Amino acid sequence: MARLKLLLAFFALVVLAAGVLAVAYYWENYFRPNWEATREFESTKSPTSRKDLPDLGLREFEAAKDLLIDGELQAARDRLLYLLEYYPDSQAASQARDIIGEINMDLLLSRAPIPGKEEHVVKRGDILSPIARKYHTSINYIMRAGGRTDPTIYPGDRLVVYPLNFKVRISLEKKAITILTPDDGKFFKHYDIIDINLPAQVRPPASTKIAEMVAWHDGRPVNFESSNYFEASKWIRTGLIGLFIRPANGGGGESSEEGGEKSDPFGVTVDKADLEEMFAYLRPSNPVTLVP
Angle at Cα 247 formed by Cα 243 and Cα 249, nearest 5°? Predict the structure, then answer.
């Protein structure tokens, strides 16, 4: 009986040793490599180790610059969009955004062919407003893209039209307005927000649309038929009460006074030139997203 117990104890030790050896084997050949690889990956995500990583976005930026020198605007833009998508932390990302925006505006506000852009040949009886509605564009765009300062049109005139179905994203934390392309929602243009003054009930996240685009001159609204239109102050009203896009110099037709003191109007303010540019290609019904 004693010999049997001794034999069973011996077998138990053998099984235990085999288990230890098996665990050691799997640790060394399977678990440890995966554990070390995971630690290495996690360490590359830390700010200290990322400083030592090469900035691969700079290579894309230099390639885009060469394309610009060769006059390949659309190819250069696509290369920079690739940079933003895959190397958003690159030192060149900010410059890439600015250049993309300028290229997009050059292509949009010209007769350069891009997908969706058409020419409308004016016929007898044509009026700008119905033409703009037909092509989902705006009178502002037709005039800017055609280099027109007079809204009068004549039979035979060739008008540049483009569907202005852009999307607007307002980020309070980044203090930025980002315009996204109509179809695929890619980056189109960036504008800095100078100041933010929103009612307490307007909180992100929220979705709305552009409700109205108004030009003001001497405290009164004017339209494109007015001789003062191009000098007028512009602002954009959204469907959220208090969410306006206004010029930073305080231009506009609305103000309020309490106790004899003029209060700051609600909205987000941007540079006047930026707002003028937005008027060229945004229109009522464009979706607007307010994010933190």
Answer: 125
| Closest among 169, 179, 200 to 281, alpha carbons compared | 179
| Mode of pairing for the β-strands spanning 158-161 and 118-121 | antiparallel
Beta-strand (E) ranges in 182-286?
A: 187-192, 195-197, 206-217, 220-222, 233-238, 244-247, 256-258, 261-263, 267-270
**What's residue 2's pLDDT?**
46
> What is the separation of C-alpha 92 from the centre of its chain, rounded to a whole number of angstroms?
17
Structure tokens of 60?
A: 């894309």
Q: 118-161 domain in CATH 3.60.10.10?
A: no
**Helices of type H across the chain:** 2-26, 32-44, 47-50, 57-69, 73-86, 93-108, 128-134, 139-145, 272-281
Reply yes or no on domain 167-256+263-291 having CATH 3.10.310.10: no
What is the token pair recorded at 54? 């090469």
Which residues in the chain show pLDDT less than 50?
Answer: 1-23, 26-27, 30-31, 34-35, 37-38, 41, 44-46, 48-49, 255-262
On the question of a common fold for 118-161 and 167-256+263-291, the answer reads no
Return the domain boundaries, the chain. Answer: 59-108, 118-161, 167-256+263-291
| pLDDT tens string 63-115 | 999 999 998 999 999 999 999 999 999 999 999 999 999 999 999 998 889 99
Residue 140, both tokens: 């502002």
Q: What pairing do the DSSP bridges indicate for beta strands 256-258 and 261-263?
A: antiparallel
pLDDT of residue 265: 87
